[in-house]
Amino acid sequence: MVDKYGTGQDPYSYEGTDILINKFDIRDATQLQEAERDFSEIAAMDIEFSEPPYDFSYWCSIHQLLFSDIYEWAGEARTIDISKGNTRFCAGRFIERESQKLLGRVAKDNFLNGLSKEELIPKLAEYYSELNVIHPFRDGNGRAQRILFEHIIVNTGHTISYELISKSDWVQANIDGYNGDYRALESIFNKCISD
What we know:
Keywords: ATP-binding, Nucleotide-binding, Nucleotidyltransferase, Transferase
CATH superfamily: Fido-like domain
CATH topology: Fic-like fold
Order of helices and strands: HHEEHHHHH
Catalytic activity: L-threonyl-[protein] + ATP = 3-O-(5'-adenylyl)-L-threonyl-[protein] + diphosphate; L-tyrosyl-[protein] + ATP = O-(5'-adenylyl)-L-tyrosyl-[protein] + diphosphate
GO molecular function: AMPylase activity; ATP binding
Distance between the termini: 48 Å
GO biological process, one term: regulation of cell division
EC number: 2.7.7.108
Number of helices: 7
């Protein structure tokens, strides 16, 4: 059986299903999605802002805090290759290297400090898109990455509120970014980030 990420039989899933193995042995996709959402929303409230460095370990720690109540593998890089629709994500064996490389560029950019909002937005869109292609975890990538970027943005002296954006606009902007067109993400960040 092929799961939603096109991996075939997935070692992270119960045999013959696309349901991720979880600490509650939930075998219904809708129930698992609800449990995952509920647990991660509660956990997200407890994640405190930290100053840089924002590296791969930091990203993993965010994921671990969000999903450790439900998944044993929370905070660990996936070991399989995944894709979604026409989007192929970073091969599992390159995740840590590529994450460190990209987050190293963010560090060399002084974690985007000292930029005007007009300078900040295009860099955020590019970095967000590039890191999104990595998709380092088996699931929960979007939530962990949004919090990582909240911290990067707060560290620059701005705030962000994703509530202003529809899910469909967000997904399409990320697909466009995957294809090298950052304009929709720039527009979203421009709306969501305070001056």
